[in-house]
């Protein structure tokens, strides 16, 4: 048999089946299909948020009641806006409001630019070890407790403290109403400015190095470099932080003001937060203290909306 006559049996080639491309499922279809997975991971966080954030909001109802802890919210007498009227008509209302606004506004004016300046100055340092050392020194005060900080302030400003020894004086600063605001604001800047500069330092890392090199080649000095290169990198962050800070003008924590408060400086140190603490926890007037706190919160929300609108118009429509 010749080679030509030999036939090799071949298996018939199966026809290629058309590829069945599965259509991509939408998120809602996937979530509905695997709802158990979402329930396991999302439900605990959802329940915690509802239980500890939203359900307690029902407690603001006692601001409109003559609340009796024994009768509870449902059994207490409804008195409407009587607690708000009582607070607004109290002879010390304007003093508490003025003290709160002065501490907040002065603190915003003097304290808000400091972290920005620190971040801009730190960004100019080329020595990484020196920069890290300075940052560590600036960040450390943030980890000091407010109560410990107030204790340090009292020791420094006492009659026999280092400040009086330095200036050869014998003044008791903690009993001077005119000195309270300066003490409060300066100590706050010292404690929080370094930590607040972290956000601006992180934003400056996104500044264009090419633009900076071009500015240097063109002969721009340090201030011109900051204006052209550094400021655009942190501008949005500055706007957001300013809106949040201005919207929280009424939200001064009572801890620091209460810890620095004395019988002789109370005319300047008594703010709405300390007043709420004394009325609610010390005197047990829960309805009235809740009404004062709710008034404070409403003012904060209004300020936040107004400041956001104003800044948005001044910043080409960019706000929060």
Which CATH class of one domain? Mainly Alpha
Structural class: mainly alpha
Envelope shape: globular
Biggest β-sheet: count, sense, barrel?
Answer: 2 strands, antiparallel
Instruction: Output the number of helix runs.
Output: 16
Give the rounded overall mean pLDDT.
Answer: 84
**Rounded to an integer, what's the Rg over CA atoms?**
31 Å
Please give the structural blueprint.
Layout: H1 27-33, H2 35-54, E1 65-66, H3 72-75, E2 77-78, H4 82-88, H5 93-111, H6 113-123, H7 128-139, H8 146-156, H9 162-167, H10 177-204, H11 209-217, H12 222-247, H13 254-259, H14 266-269, H15 272-282, H16 286-314
Antiparallel strand pairs: 1-2
Helix pairs in contact: 1-2, 4-16, 5-10, 6-10, 7-10, 10-12, 11-12, 12-16, 15-16
What does this structure look like?
With 320 residues, this protein is an all-alpha fold. The protein has a domain at 94-269 and 302-314: MetI-like (MetI-like fold). The chain has helices at residues 27-33, 35-54, 72-75, 82-88, 93-111, 113-123, 128-139, 146-156, 162-167, 177-204, 209-217, 222-247, 254-259, 266-269, 272-282, 286-314, and strands at 65-66, 77-78. It has a two-stranded antiparallel sheet. Helix 5 crosses helix 10 (177-204), helix 10 packs across helix 12 (222-247) and helix 11 crosses helix 12. The radius of gyration is 31 Å and the shape is globular.
Key words describing this protein structure:
320 residues, mainly alpha, MetI-like fold, two-stranded antiparallel ribbon, 16 helices, 66% helix, 1% strand, globular
